Structures are given as structure tokens and as C-alpha cells.
């Protein structure tokens, strides 16, 4: 099966097999837009997010390694001390979490004591957390600052690295998609939003961009010799780049998700709620969304932004016009979305040479009498020079 | 056999890595042996058990707090917590203005109050001063130690003296012969001195407060850098106070508070100018009082100026959080509210004083925003689970790598992960030693996530190498060409990771900070690893027959590259014909067809250079170029070289062109595309 994967990788690489990521971008964008609208609408319908105690303020006690997991013990303990109603949950095997409204120092100690007695555990098995009312606000503010600073820096960095602001804008636009959809998923599923989740969430941005960088790097590489050749259009070359990096994208997502999945498993099933689960859940969601966004949103978005440029358009027209002439009688049945010609058996073949020999080198005559089938595609006069003998 | 250049480079890189590992391991071993470090990273409170408090600063007037003031506040909390005897408390500013205090165990009520309470600054006049001989000597030695003129030998002597001092303070105490014998004697002596030296009015004002207890306290006062909360609470602004300057060892009796720190408007520091207006080379600190402060300070300074220079009564003590930070002589009455403090200060000293004064103008108290008490049991369980998650993650990733890349993963990915784990482990331990870094739960999450990111560098690299193989290069060539491209991509994408980690680290507060830290750290280690280990290893492996000839399960076999379909029969198309990503590579075949008999040879069913066909052909064709150099050349360079030879040959025998059929079996790219 790995071989099958590798074979697919090779076919994607040559363009023999090709998925219309750029060509069908209208469809992807419509789906993306629907997802966006849904993600924005869901919080309104569901009444926002399930904020963790860090955002609402309050006190939280965790009793670990208890044999007695009766929820009512916790409720009684809190009611006795402060008269409040407590939320008691059995978050993992032999772990109980008690959440209350804010307690003062004395009450905290008393509740801790009552819980120890109630569950029959030692003092070192009860952990407590107290969150003041402004803490969540503070974290949110810090994270928003972080988000803005990161986006500005990354936009500048990408613009500098790729030497084109359009790639930068496309990448950041796609990030917006990742952010909105991830928050939509959080709202829809009622996953708890905690500071750990938010830091995981910010990490996703870097992860999604990381993925985008790799794909955009390939796009840039494929586009470098764009104007020197008349075989493929701009769109086809971009699409080829996405297809060529598809195997890598899948592998990246898998190797990214495997460790995250193991944290998620441990965090959610063995430890119960906590730092590990929150970070892992955000990452798990984000890696999937981020990889999909790179392929279906960011790269096609860039293609569409550049497609209208005058030089690109004239090049595309020229290529398509030439192609009409070139593929007649050449046995080419079809040209894939990545601009690779296939013959009637579905095998990839080379483009026939350009109709007018442009070079003055005499070797070109030989080139033309040759069966193109047997020639290793000299694309320019320069590159064909050594082929003669 | 002389090693080719890539091999030499690879060996050099591996040697560098080895030295790096040796340095880290050796450094750590030294630290462990000296008892300063430990092999395992230090653990944060959520893994070890303990209390972590996040505090936010509060000021009464709602004024803005700047960084310097906050740092001063943290410094004060640190001294106070140290004073309570809590070992290993950690206090740091995180995020914009949060102070995070971590300590083992559960702090008592008193410690909490100490942490939250603000520290007052006061200006008091000095009544009497004596010098704690031990402390004074220690301070002198300490100052000597810091002087740059000391050579190593002298330094060692001074250090020895310092040590002896702290071991046996009693002995030194005995030398203080002038000390009065009993509290009564001391009291009488004090009253006598002060009544004779002070102006009658001033003395009358404080005479009642000069009790025997005060004299006794003055006599027995032991100057400690930290004060208990009782000591601090006992300080009444309306009463005289016995305290000291821990930096100099001076012990003071101070009068009631003359000016409160609240009346300081601002403080600044700059170069000191002598009476002639010439710079003295020292620095000075200037205190600016507000209008009330100006008024109060004028009165006080006028009073003090009345005493002769050099007497204790002429001195003015600035008290911060119960300790004297400086006690200058009053050179003239200060009427305009701008007091200059000079004393042969260095830039840093003057600046520090100015910062302390600025803090004094705005005492900061703290509110607990969040507090987390983790029991040791829960901490240990979290640690165990975190490690378990890490191991599972590592195994899964390694398993997937093997599934995808076969023995390439075994030979490259797995050793790389081992090396990266070792470097990370040691780096964390070293950071724990040098900077007190502690690994938190979130930090572990960052480490586990980085397994995926590290493995991804290999994915990028291996896929590039595969692409280059599909373009028809030899493995050695593909490794070099693939590397030159993968390197750029890896660096660019790691830069994004590091950027995100740095930004997160700057804004995050509390435990989650550890996540950003490990994420950034591992991204950097990953880059080191790829450059110094993974790539050199690939360069060396590329020369192994098992990989170079694309054996089964090498991860690079024809089947695993997915190109087997090409060689099933004649008339198939060369892949390099239809690969357009690289102009030069697309022309590979065109430039390299040499041997028409080679096309049907079964040897070509491997898309890598078969030594016996391609290399031999190549040598026959281009005898001038040595093997190593050829391996390094790009496709374009090789093509050029071939063409030059070709041109020369054609000139020599023009008829050859007709005689030889045009053909295109590229031995280098090994497409069997000839009928």
C-alpha cells in the first residue's frame, strides 16, 4: 500500500494524475464560504462558547486517585462550607473535579478539607485552582495582542521571503479561514475554551502557515520558468505544484497528528481535562483544518489573485493558442489539470515541439524529423544543443 | 580512496555534531558532578506539586506602571519571600505586567500577605550609626571581587577570605572592641552622644522615644538582607527606627519619617558634574519631589544642614521596604525639591537608585489573579502521563516513517529522532542549570508536538530527494540537489515556527509559557539536527550500494518511488520528458543519451544511476571529470560539460552525425524509452 501511495506520489509529481485544485476553485470557495458563514453563525445560535473556569472566574478542586467517585460528596462539601452549588464531574477514572464560584482563602481551605474527608484522600491528593474575575479578560487581551503581532510579522516575513505580497495576502487570508472555522468547530462541539486551548489555537496558525510555506515554495519554483516555456499555463503549473506536494501534505499532517493524537488520548481519557487535552484538541482540529485550507483555499486563492495579471493572461492565451495547433495529430488525447498531456492509453507523453522552430541552430532540423516519441523534450534551443550527435 | 567533497563535508558536519554533543554532555556531567545541575530537567510546579500564583499589580491612583517599577516590585517580593525561608520560590514578570510566583508546597497566610503588600519608601534623618564589622568587611570584599583589576590569584584569596567570614562570624565580632557591654550602658551612651551633638529642639522632640529597648536593639541588631513581616509591621513612621543597609553593613537609628516616598514625583540619573561644571566621570541620581514633598524636604534638609558635615546627624536615610538603601550627607539645604545624590556612582548604580526611587513614588501592591495548588500526587501522575504520551507519539511517528520510507526511516529518521531527543533533553537540563528553566506540562505538550514537526523536516527532505530521483538523478546527486531545495523550505518554515513561538512566549503567562518555549527551542534544535546530522547521514548513505542501487525496502526502490510502470516495456515515456518543474532536469535526457545499447538493459529499471551503466558511460564520455566532481554537478552543469565535449567531437568528425541515429536512452536518467 505504501508502494501504491508512492506510485500515486509519482503520478501526482509528473502530473499524470491530477486533482483540479485550482480549476475547481469556485466550488472550493463556495464550500469554504458556506463553512465560514456557518462558523460565524453557530456561536450566535449556540450562545457563544463553553468557556473554562479561567475565563469565568471561580475555584476548582481536583481530587486525584480516589476510589470513591460519588458526585454528591463534592456537592455536599461545597454546600456545607459556602452554601453554593458546585459543579462536580468525574473527569477521568478516579479523578473528580469540583468547580464552584469564587471562594475566599478561608473557604478554599475549608472546602479542600471537606473534600479530603468526604473522599477519604490525603491532603496531597487534592489540588485547587483559584481564578480571579479579571484573569480571563487579561488572557484574552494578551492573546489578541499576540495574534495581531504574529500576523503582522508573518505577513511581512512572507512578503519578504516570496518577494510577492500576493502570496503573503493569500496565505494570511487562508489563515483567517482556519481561525474562523476552528472557532466554529469549538462552538459547535462545545469543547471547553481555556488558556491552553487558546495557546494551542495560536500554534495552529504557525502550523497552518508552515504547511502553506512548503506548498508556496513549490509553486514559486514551478512558476520560475513560466515565461520561458509554452507548454503549460500558469494555472496548470500552480495546480501541478499543489499536486506535487500533496503526498508531502498528507505525510506532514499524519506525522503531525500522530503525536498530537497521543497527547489527546492520554489527556482526555487518562488524565481528564487539563493542559494536555486542551492544547492537543486545539492542535488536532487545527492541523486538519490547516492542511485542508492550504490545499483548497490558500493556494487556489493565490492562483486567482495572480491569474488576472496582464503578463499571466497573455502567456495563458499564447499557450492555449499554440496548444490547439500542437496537439493535432500528435496522439494526445487529453491534457490533465496539471498540464500533462496523456495519450490514448492514459500514459503521459511529451508535448510536440513548438510549431515554428525558433532557433537558428541547424540541429533543429534533425530534431523535427525525429519521432518526437523518442526525443527527450528539448524545450529551448539551448537545451537541445547537446542532444545531437 | 580519497573521499569526495560531499563525503568530506558530511564527515565534518558529523564531527561538529559530535563535538556539540560532547560539549553539552560534558558540561552537564561537570555540573552534575559539582552538584549544581542534575541530569533530568527541572520540573515545574504542575509536575512536581506546589503553588503558582499569578499576580496583577495594583496602584491606588490608577497611574500607569512602567517596567522598571514592576521589576523593582518583583525584586522586593523576591527578597521578602526569601526572608520567609521558602526555598526555591520563583518570581518572574510574564506577559505585559503579570508577576508569577511559584513555590513548593502551600504558602501560609503570612507569605501571601507579604507577596501582595506594597513596599513603602521613606526619608528619615539619621540619629546614630554604627558599622557591623562582619557585614562591612564582607561588603568590602564583595566590592573588591567585582573590581576588574583583580587577577585570578588575588581573586582566589579574596574568595577565601569571604568564605572564612561567612563560616566564622563570631570571631570577627570579637574584634569590635568599642562595643558597649550592656544595654544600659548603650542607652546612656546613646543619650549622651545625641544630646551633645543634636540641636536642643531636635533632641527634645525625639528624646522620649529613645528608650532603652531602642538602644538595646541598636546594639544587638543583626543586619539581614531580609525582614520578617513582624519586623516590617513594627516600623511606625512616627517613631525612631533601627535598621541597616545590607549592602554596606551600616546599622542606623533613624528619626521619624520626614518625607514619605509618595511625594516623589520622579527620579532620574545622569553624569555627575563637579563644581566647575566639568564631568567627574561619575554618575548621579536626582530626586524630584512634588510640591508637598518639596516643602517637607526643604524643612528637613535645612535642619540636617545645621549639623556639621560628616556627623551622623547630617545624614539623610532613604528607606525602602524597611531597609536603608542609601544615606547621603546633606551638603546644602534643598529648597527647590530637586535633590542630587552623588557618591562616585557608576552608571548602573545611579540608575538602580533612580529606579528604586521611582518605585518608591508609586508603591505597587498585588492582587492574586489566579492561584493553582497542585498536589504532589497529581503532579507525579501528570508527569507520568505526559511521558507516556510522548513515548506513544514517538512510536507512532517512527512507525509511520518506517511504513512510508522503509529502511531509509530506520537508517535516518529514527537515529535523527534519537539524537534530537538527546539534544533536547540535555538542552533542557542545561537551561535548568543556567537559567533555572523548569519543564511544565505545557512544555511537555510542546515537546511532543515537536516530534511531528521534526519528522516533517524529513518528510520535506525525503520527498525532495524522491522528486530529484524521479527527475533522473543518481542518489548522490539527488541528495545534493534535493537538499539545496529542501534546505530553503525547511529554514523558511522553521522560521515561521520560531516566530510564532517567540510571539507566544512574549504574551503568554503562567504554565502555557512552557509550551511556547519548548516549541521554539525544538525548532532551533531541529534546524541544527537537519544540518549536522540528517543531511550528512544521507550524503554518506547515498554512497552505500543498498540505497544507491535502490534495493527493495531501501525506501528508494523503483517500486517505492512509484515509477516501476515505466520500465515494463519499450515505447514508454521517460518521466523527465513530462516533468516540467525544472527546466534543466527536463533536458536531462536530451543531454545525456550516450549509449544506444543501454536502453533495453534491465539494469535501467532503477531510476537511480546504476554505477555500471551510467557511471561507466559517463567516464567514457567525459574522462576529464573525476567521479566526485561529477556527483556534485547539477544536471545543467553536466549537460554543459557533455555538450562541450560533444561539440569538440563533432568538429573532429562531422560525419558522425549522419551515422548515428538520434536516440534518447539517457543512462543518467535511465529511461528505457527506446524502441
Automatic annotation (TrEMBL), chain A:
Its main location: membrane. Keywords: Cell membrane, Membrane, Protein transport, Translocation, Transmembrane, Transmembrane helix, Transport. Belongs to the SecD/SecF family. SecF subfamily. This is Protein-export membrane protein SecF. GO terms for cellular component: plasma membrane. Residues 339-366 are annotated as: Disordered. One of its GO terms (molecular function) is protein-transporting ATPase activity. It is found in: Cell membrane. The chain crosses the membrane at residues 27-45, 143-162, 169-187, 193-210, 254-273, 279-303. Residues 357-366 have a biased composition (Acidic residues). SUPFAM superfamilies: Multidrug efflux transporter AcrB transmembrane domain. It comes from the Bacteria.
Automatic annotation (TrEMBL), chain B:
Residues 70-126 form the Protein translocase subunit SecDF P1 domain. Residues 641-660 have a biased composition (Basic and acidic residues). Residues 165-179 have a biased composition (Acidic residues). The chain crosses the membrane at residues 383-403, 408-428, 440-462, 491-508, 514-534. Residues 365-542 form the Protein export membrane protein SecD/SecF C-terminal domain. Keywords: Cell membrane, Membrane, Protein transport, Translocation, Transmembrane, Transmembrane helix, Transport. It is found in: Cell membrane. Residues 165-185, 591-629, 641-675 are annotated as: Disordered. One of its GO terms (biological process) is intracellular protein transmembrane transport. InterPro entries: SecD (IPR005791), SecD/SecF_arch_bac (IPR022813), SecD_1st (IPR048631), SecD_SecF_C (IPR048634), SecD_SecF_C_bact (IPR055344), SecDF_P1_head (IPR054384). Residues 256-364 form the SecDF P1 head subdomain domain. It is a multi-pass membrane protein. It comes from the Bacteria. GO terms for molecular function: protein-transporting ATPase activity. Part of the Sec protein translocase complex. Interacts with the SecYEG preprotein conducting channel. SecDF uses the proton motive force (PMF) to complete protein translocation after the ATP-dependent function of SecA. Belongs to the SecD/SecF family. SecD subfamily. HAMAP family: SecD_B. Forms a complex with SecF. Part of the essential Sec protein translocation apparatus which comprises SecA, SecYEG and auxiliary proteins SecDF. Other proteins may also be involved. This is Protein translocase subunit SecD. It comes from Nesterenkonia alkaliphila.
Amino acid at each position: 500500500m505504501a508502494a501504491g501511495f508512492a506510485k500515486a506520489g509519482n503520478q501526482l509529481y509528473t502530473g499524470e494524475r491530477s486533482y483540479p485544485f485550482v480549476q475547481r476553485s469556485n466550488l472550493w470557495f463556495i464550500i469554504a464560504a458556506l463553512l465560514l458563514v456557518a462558523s460565524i453563525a453557530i456561536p450566535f445560535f449556540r450562545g457563544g462558547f463553553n468557556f473554562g473556569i479561567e475565563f469565568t472566574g471561580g475555584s476548582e478542586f481536583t481530587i486525584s486517585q480516589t476510589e470513591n467517585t460519588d458526585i454528591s460528596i463534592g456537592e455536599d462539601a461545597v454546600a456545607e462550607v459556602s452554601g453554593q452549588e458546585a459543579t462536580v464531574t468525574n473527569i477521568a477514572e478516579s479523578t473528580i473535579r469540583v468547580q464552584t464560584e469564587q471562594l475566599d482563602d478561608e473557604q478554599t481551605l475549608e472546602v479542600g478539607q471537606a473534600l479530603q474527608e468526604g473522599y477519604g484522600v490525603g491532603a496531597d491528593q487534592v489540588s485547587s485552582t483559584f481564578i480571579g474575575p479579571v484573569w480571563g479578560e487579561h488572557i484574552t487581551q494578551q492573546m489578541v495582542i499576540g495574534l495581531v503581532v504574529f500576523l503582522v510579522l508573518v505577513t511581512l516575513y512572507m512578503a519578504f521571503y516570496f518577494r510577492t505580497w500576493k502570496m503573503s495576502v493569500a496565505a494570511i487570508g487562508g489563515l483567517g479561514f482556519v481561525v474562523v472555522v476552528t472557532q466554529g468547530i469549538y462552538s459547535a462541539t462545545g469543547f471547553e475554551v481555556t488558556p491552553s486551548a487558546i495557546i494551542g489555537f495560536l500554534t495552529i496558525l504557525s502550523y497552518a502557515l508552515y504547511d502553506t510555506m512548503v506548498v508556496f515554495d513549490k509553486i514559486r519554483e514551478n512558476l520560475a520558468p513560466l515565461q520561458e516555456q509554452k507548454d503549460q499555463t500558469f494555472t496548470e503549473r500552480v495546480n501541478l505544484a499543489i499536486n506535487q506536494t500533496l503526498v508531502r501534505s498528507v505525510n506532514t499532517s499524519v506525522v503531525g497528528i500522530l503525536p498530537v493524537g497521543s497527547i489527546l488520548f492520554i489527556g482526555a481519557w487518562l488524565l481528564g481535562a487539563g493542559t494536555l487535552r486542551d492544547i492537543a484538541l486545539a492542535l488536532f482540529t487545527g492541523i486538519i483544518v490547516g492542511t485542508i485550507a492550504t490545499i483548497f483555499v490558500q493556494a487556489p486563492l493565490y492562483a486567482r489573485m495572480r491569474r488576472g495579471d496582464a503578463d499571466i493572461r497573455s502567456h495563458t492565451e499564447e499557450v492555449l493558442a499554440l496548444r490547439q495547433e500542437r496537439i493535432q495529430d500528435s496522439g494526445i488525447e487529453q491534457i490533465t489539470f496539471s498540464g500533462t498531456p496523456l495519450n490514448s492509453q492514459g500514459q503521459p507523453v511529451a508535448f510536440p515541439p513548438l510549431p515554428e522552430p525558433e532557433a537558428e541552430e541547424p540541429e533543429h532540423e534533425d530534431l523535427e524529423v525525429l519521432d518526437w516519441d523518442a526525443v527527450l523534450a528539448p524545450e529551448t534551443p539551448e537545451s537541445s544543443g547537446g542532444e545531437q550527435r | 580512496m580519497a573521499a569526495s567533497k560531499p563525503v568530506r563535508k558530511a564527515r565534518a558536519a558529523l564531527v561538529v555534531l559530535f563535538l556539540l554533543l560532547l560539549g553539552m554532555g560534558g558540561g552537564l556531567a561537570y555540573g552534575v558532578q559539582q552538584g549544581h545541575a542534575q541530569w533530568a530537567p527541572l520540573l515545574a510546579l504542575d509536575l512536581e506539586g506546589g503553588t503558582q500564583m499569578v499576580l496583577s499589580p495594583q496602584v491606588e491612583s490608577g497611574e500607569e506602571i512602567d517596567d522598571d517599577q514592576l521589576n523593582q516590585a518583583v525584586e522586593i517580593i523576591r527578597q521578602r519571600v526569601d526572608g520567609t525561608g521558602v526555598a526555591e520560590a520563583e518570581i518572574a514578570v510574564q506577559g505585559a505586567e503579570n508577576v508569577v510566583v511559584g513555590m513548593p508546597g502551600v504558602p501560609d497566610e503570612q507569605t501571601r500577605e507579604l507577596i501582595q503588600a506594597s513596599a513603602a519608601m521613606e526619608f528619615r534623618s539619621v540619629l546614630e550609626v554604627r558599622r557591623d564589622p562582619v557585614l562591612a568587611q564582607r561588603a568590602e570584599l564583595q566590592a573588591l571581587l567585582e573590581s576588574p583589576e583583580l587577577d585570578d590569584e588575588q581573586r582566589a584569596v579574596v574568595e577565601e577570605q569571604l568564605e572564612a567570614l561567612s563560616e566564622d562570624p563570631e570571631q570577627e565580632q570579637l574584634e569590635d572592641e568599642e562595643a558597649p557591654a550592656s544595654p544600659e550602658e548603650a542607652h546612656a551612651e546613646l543619650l549622651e552622644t545625641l544630646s551633645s551633638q543634636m540641636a536642643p529642639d531636635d533632641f527634645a522632640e525625639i528624646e522620649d522615644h529613645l528608650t532603652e529597648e531602642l538602644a538595646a536593639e541598636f546594639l544587638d541588631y543583626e543586619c539581614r538582607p531580609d525582614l520578617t513581616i513582624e519586623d516590617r509591621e513594627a516600623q511606625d513612621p512616627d517613631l525612631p527606627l533601627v535598621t541597616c543597609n545590607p549592602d554596606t553593613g551600616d546599622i542606623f537609628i533613624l528619626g521619624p519619617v520626614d518625607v514619605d516616598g509618595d511625594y516623589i514625583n520622579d527620579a532620574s540619573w545622569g553624569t555627575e558634574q563637579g563644581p566647575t561644571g566639568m564631568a567627574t566621570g561619575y554618575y548621579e541620581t536626582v530626586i524630584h519631589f512634588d510640591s508637598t514633598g518639596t516643602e517637607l524636604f526643604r524643612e528637613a534638609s535645612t535642619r540636617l544642614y545645621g549639623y556639621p558635615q560628616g556627623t551622623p546627624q547630617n545624614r539623610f536615610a532613604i528607606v525602602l521596604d524597611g531597609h536603608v538603601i542609601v544615606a547621603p550627607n546633606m551638603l546644602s539645604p534643598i529648597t527647590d525639591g530637586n535633590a542630587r545624590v552623588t557618591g562616585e556612582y557608576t552608571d548602573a548604580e545611579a540608575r538602580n537608585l533612580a529606579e528604586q526611587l521611582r518605585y518608591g513614588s508609586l508603591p505597587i501592591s498585588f492582587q492574586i489573579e489566579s492561584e493553582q495548588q497542585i498536589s504532589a500526587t497529581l503532579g507525579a501522575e501528570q508527569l507520568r502521563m505526559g511521558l507516556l504520551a510522548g513515548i506513544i507519539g514517538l512510536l507512532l511517528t517512527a512507525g509511520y516513517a518506517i511504513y512510508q520510507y522503509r529502511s531509509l526511516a530506520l537508517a535516518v529518521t529514527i537515529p535523527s529522532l534519537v539524537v534530537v531527543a538527546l539534544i533536547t533533553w540535555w538542552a533542557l537540563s542545561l537551561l535548568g542549570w543556567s537559567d533555572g528553566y523548569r519543564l511544565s506540562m505545557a512544555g511537555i505538550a510542546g515537546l511532543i508536538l515537536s516530534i511531528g514537526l521534526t519528522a516533517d523536516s524529513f518528510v520535506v527532505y525525503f520527498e525532495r530527494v524522491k522528486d530529484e530521483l524521479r527527475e533522473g538523478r543518481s542518489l548522490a546527486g539527488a541528495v545534493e540537489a534535493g537538499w539545496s531545495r529542501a534546505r530553503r523550505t525547511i529554514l523558511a518554515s522553521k522560521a515561521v515556527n520560531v516566530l510564532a513561538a517567540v510571539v507566544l512566549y512574549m504574551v503568554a503567562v503562567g504554565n502555557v509559557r512552557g509550551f511556547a518555549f519548548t516549541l521554539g527551542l525544538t525548532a532551533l534544535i531541529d534546524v541544527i539536527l537537519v544540518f549536522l546530522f540528517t543531511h550528512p547521514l544521507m550524503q554518506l548513505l547515498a554512497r552505500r550500494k543498498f540505497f544507491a542501487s535502490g534495493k527493495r525496502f531501501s525506501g528508494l526502490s523503483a517500486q517505492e518511488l512509484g515509477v516501476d510502470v515505466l520500465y515494463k516495456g519499450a515505447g514508454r515515456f521517460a518521466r523527465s520528458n513530462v516533468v516540467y518543474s525544472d527546466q534543466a532536469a527536463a533536458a536531462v535526457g536530451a543531454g545525456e543519451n550516450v549509449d544506444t545499447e543501454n536502453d533495453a538493459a534491465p539494469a535501467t529499471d532503477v531510476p537511480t544511476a546504476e554505477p555500471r551503466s551510467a557511471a561507466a558511460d559517463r567516464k567514457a564520455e567525459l574522462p576529464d571529470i573525476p567521479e566526485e566532481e561529477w556527483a556534485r554537478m547539477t544536471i545543467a552543469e553536466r549537460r554543459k560539460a557533455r555538450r562541450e565535449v560533444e561539440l569538440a567531437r563533432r568538429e573532429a568528425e562531422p560525419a558522425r552525425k549522419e551515422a548515428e541515429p538520434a536516440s534518447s536512452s539517457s543512462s543518467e536518467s535511465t529511461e528505457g524509452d527506446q524502441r
